Predict the 3D structure of the following.
Amino acid sequence: MRTHIAFFIALATSAFSNSLLAQCNAEQDAQALYALEANLKIYTLENGLTVRLLPMADKQTVTIASQFNLGARNEAQGQSGYAHLFEHMLFKGSENAPGDTYAQQLSALGARFNASTHFDYTNYYVTLPSPALELGLYLEADRFIRPSLNATTVKNQQETVLQEMAQTIDNQPYVRSAMAFLLDQVQGTPYGHGIIGSREDILQATPESLTAIHRAYYRPDAMQLSLVGKLSPQTLQWIEQNFATWPKPATTEPRFTELHIQPKQVHAELVDERGPWPGLLLAWHTVGKDHPDAAAIQLLESYLFQNTASAIAKLSQHNPAQMLSYSLPFELENHGIANIVLVPRARTSLDALVQKVLGLVTQTQQEALDETSLCALKQVWLNHRLQQLSDTQALATLLSATSAQDKDNPFSAQWQRINAVSAGDIQRVATKYFTQNYVRLDLLPPWYIRWGKTLLEWLPGDMSDSLEDAVL
């Protein structure tokens, strides 16, 4: 039950670009998205619940995925981590399935189930044998509509969350401090605190305060329900029996507008006595996932940092300056942060790594991609999406994360915006967003490791590499 994703999008293309796309099979391969979409049935219940059904007759299982418009951004001051804590609670009893009944019944069927909380939303899934679909819908509706919260289960899940916090954040070098630093960059916004929350806030949670979270945000008009797999002819009837009586609240959902952050150049150092080696984080403020520039930015990030044929990977093929590079975009509805984390070789300073990355960005700003490279980027995006088509869990989760602009075409609309991006678009967003107003965070180990690293930077390359190999 951990945090975790989404894909960015935008517009514009040319006839020549389309001809090259056909050569790399992108247009032909994309037909699978349209074919899948043709089988999709979309319904809206009277209480506002959106339902998507995607039958796949060749499957023996069905996935039920649900997403709610509740994430860390909705939490009030002093209640950080409550959305995530409440997610845990939904596995610990409801009115008609008390205690561990939910987990016991589904485990007995060989079902898989889990959930995750993010800044913008919380999602749930269960994949179970198709003959158990009626039971699965009953259990999902019962826990979403009628959860059972008491002091004992709240205390147990507080301890579980704190253990998770210790294992994934506090016991890992750099993570807690780096997370706090990044959140400081968006202080004063709904995203200014971590998803897992603070220890102090988690310990203050009560059944009453968590019930208030449920009452405010677990509502049918803030939910998307998707079923993918072998569906019964009675599927929609079962959904209506279990979910249609769920009343829609009289109040409207809260809305969050695009963040207006003025980027500025930031350089900070973070020293962690547990750190095994230096590292470097570079980040740029970008846009939310529904912004017109999002697709071009996504392809730009892929080109620079995110696949085995990226610019940073090509730069490192023969004489790499880093041992590791990793990029995971900060994907939000109302904001975006492009980033890359690098771990340098012994002979390479952090300053040298920064210059290499900035050099790649500058080159992209000055020289438009050739159409073959652009085509390859689009093919990579499409291949990733196509890999999900046979996995009912991935498909159902993707459908439940459909944005409002894609509600009628959840598969093809995203592809169409990616396909419309031109080389000029990528050059434009590189110039507009990847400016000198970037965030730099130096992740530094204890002084004696830093001292040894500095010494290795001054040694001849062959000697430095030999010592590095011996140590590693």
In short: Confidence is low (pLDDT under 50) at residues 1-23.
